[in-house]
Write a structure and sequence with these properties.
Blueprint (H helix, E strand, L loop, with lengths): L2 E5 L5 H13 L2 E6 L7 E7 L10 H12 L7 H14 L7 H13 L2 H7 L3 E6 L13 H8 L1 H28 L6 H35 L14 H5 L2 H8 L8 H34 L4 H29 L5 H29 L4 H38 L5 H5 L6 H18 L5 H22 L13 H25 L1 H6 L3 H25 L3 H4 L1 H25 L7 H41 L1
Helix pairs in contact: 1-3, 6-7, 7-8, 7-17, 8-16, 8-18, 8-20, 11-12, 11-13, 12-13, 12-14, 13-14, 13-16, 13-18, 14-17, 16-18, 18-20, 22-23
């Protein structure tokens, strides 16, 4: 239920005392911790009076963070003087110039104080602390997971469970078809292609939509989500005049030449990396044709190299995104994820597409798909499982023993979007090339079972993230839908071009391609009709949830307001404490009464609307 602020050696005692005094007026309790033999100290912030019903501290963390980010340097003259003195001592800006003075004044007036202190390396990371609930191990149900980590983590594990359950169906079908001897190879391929395409098209609109609505009904407690600026980027962002002006006072357009130039440089370097990936494919084909090497050995080596090439590109994509100077987490994530998606499409799909539609080598395609699925799943599982289990062992020994701020700062941050990216690439691979290798669905299913456990261990061994209330963002929903359509298109045209059964029915390639286009559009139309037929969450539960949602949000507002009003006076006597408890009881009764009245009102409005329609 606490938020930790890492204090660098530049933090002076006078500035720290003024800062703590202002935070106390916000109703926050401040505890300063100085670990032995460490230059970094920690300021632990929490509400003096915890919010009632906040078992896992999610609302308290949001309230504490909101109070922390509401402090500005010009709020108290003494605080402003202390900040200016400290900045002048450690600044890298020539304060003798008018530009330097204006820039500093703008930052002090328009930026939260915590950001100004981060800018000058006086304050480090700001992160929520784990509670003792984490020591108990993994949570038993999604509600506890959601209440502790926020909706985004809960929805991720909900989506992973849906994806794994749906994948179990194709794994069973693939196992049966793979070991069925009375069916011809083309017949197996056609059956798996149709089932896989329908499975992929219905996964998001049937499986995930219904599961997400079910989770919403279980949680039914909307919580606010604070938008956090990337603390790691403050030095890079605010050292640049254009980006600093865009962030602080909006005096520079986002189309500023310097900002556009960085993005163009990033795009050029990304294009060069894609060309390098294609060059690796051409070199592999040249080696196989020129030298007498076993094709299976070449395919295995090439598949392993591509797996490690993907890992290397992650660091390269992160560096490219950093030079673009994105301000907030969401834009940074979308930019980095887009680069990795583009590279993975080239790295994973271009080689088999080249073999299928350019050189028309179906036997090599089948061998490449078999090796690709096997090596990618095995290498990915090993490279993820071994570090995760070792980190878990070290975490148990070093970090969880005393649950200190210093130990939690050393914990790694879990990047949730990388897990979504891994599932999206796997989904596209299965839909596109899975029918050629039915056992691939079994490998993917086993991999996801292991992934579920590894993700839970990584989450439990990572720094506690800020609770966020988004489900799967629209960006990732679009990514999954696009990957399914992309994979389904490849699947259909592979069947049209290389299936001998279809070729015997019509030898004309033009006619078969026309059938493929019609079949692809038919699958898209089926998906659209299914999406229309399934009622969305706001259609089947919004009327029932709205009064509860409003009352829950009101309860949070009242709790934060009461904490803000009461906590500047921590020395209240027993009489005042009794009065506060009575007021809380009255507030809870008022909220319950408001929910009942809203329910009655919503029920009364519907008959009135029906009568108006009849008239």
């Amino acid at each position: 239920m606490s938020v930790c602020v890492a204090l660098k050696p530049r933090m002076t005692a006078g500035l720290l005392a003024c800062f703590k005094g202002v935070l106390r007026t916000r109703g926050l309790e401040c505890v300063h911790q100085q670990p032995p033999k460490s230059e970094v100290s920690f300021l632990i912030l929490k509400l003096v009076r915890p919010i009632r019903g906040d078992t896992f501290g999610t609302i308290s963390i949001q309230a504490t963070t909101a109070y922390l980010y509401s402090v500005t340097a010009d709020e108290i003259p003494e605080l402003q003087d202390r900040v200016k003195a400290t900045i002048t001592k450690y600044t890298r800006i020539p304060q003798g110039t008018k530009f330097g003075r204006d820039r500093t004044e703008t930052m002090l007036h328009k930026m939260p104080l915590i950001r100004v202190l981060q800018r000058y390396n006086i304050v480090g990371d700001v992160f929520p602390l784990h509670t003792e609930s984490r020591n108990a191990g993994l949570f038993e149900d999604y509600r506890d997971l959601n209440m502790y980590y926020g909706d985004s983590i809960g929805y991720y594990f909900g989506f992973l469970s849906v994806y794994t359950r749906w994948l179990s169906v194709l794994a069973l079908v693939g196992l049966i078809i793979a070991f069925t001897n009375h069916l011809q190879m083309d017949s197996k391929w056609i059956i798996m292609s149709i089932l896989t395409t329908l499975w992929g098209l219905l996964l998001m609109d049937v499986g995930w939509v219904t599961r997400k609505a079910s989770l919403k009904r279980q949680w039914d407690a909307p919580r606010s989500s604070l938008k956090h600026i990337r603390s790691q980027a403050m030095d890079d962002i605010l050292d640049d005049v254009a980006t600093q002006s865009l962030y602080v006072d909006n005096s520079v357009s986002s189309t500023h030449f310097g900002l556009v130039l960085r993005r163009l440089l990033s795009a050029v370097l990304l294009a060069l990396s894609l060309l390098a990936s294609c060059a690796l494919l051409m070199w592999t084909l040249h080696i196989e044709r020129t030298y007498s090497v076993d094709p299976m050995i070449v395919s295995v080596i090439y598949s392993v190299v591509r797996v490690f090439l993907s890992s290397a590109f992650k660091s390269f994509a992160n560096w490219l995104t950093k030079i673009e100077h994105h301000i907030d987490d969401e834009n940074f994530m979308i930019s980095e994820a887009s680069k990795e998606i583009i590279f993975e499409v080239f790295n994973v799909f271009v080689p088999p597409i080249w073999m299928a539609f350019v050189i028309l080598d179906f036997e090599r395609l089948r061998r490449e798909v078999t090796v690709m699925f096997t090596t990618r799943q095995v290498v990915s599982a090993l490279t993820e499982a071994v570090p995760t289990l070792l980190a878990r062992l070290l975490t148990k020994r070093k970090h969880l023993a005393p649950l200190t701020a210093a130990a939690q700062q050393a914990l790694p941050e879990w990047e949730l979007w990388r897990e979504y990216l891994e599932m999206a690439i796997q989904l596209a691979q299965l839909v596109a090339f899975g029918p050629l290798f039915p056992l691939a669905f079994i490998l993917a299913y086993v991999n996801d079972l292991v992934e579920f456990r590894l993700d839970a261990i990584k989450l439990n061994s990572s720094r506690r993230p800020y609770p966020r209330n988004e489900a799967m963002s629209s960006f990732w929903t679009n990514v999954f839908n696009s990957m399914v359509l992309f994979g389904a298109s490849i699947n259909v045209f592979l069947l049209i071009v290389h299936c001998q059964t279809l070729a015997s029915l019509d030898e004309s390639m033009v006619n078969r391609l026309g059938v493929g286009i019609i079949l692809e559009k038919f699958f898209v139309v089926v998906r659209v009709f299914v999406a229309i037929a399934i009622p969305k969450a706001n259609e089947w539960q919004e009327d029932a949830r709205m009064p509860l949602a409003e009352s829950t949000e009101l309860a949070e507002i009242v709790a934060r307001a009461s904490a803000h009003l009461e906590l500047p006076f921590p020395d209240v006597d027993q009489k005042d404490a009794t009065l506060i408890e009575m007021i809380d009881t009255d507030i809870e009764a008022l909220i319950s009464r408001m929910a009942i009245l809203r329910n009655r009102k919503s029920v009364q409005v519907k008959p009135d609307q029906d009568e108006c329609k009849e008239e």
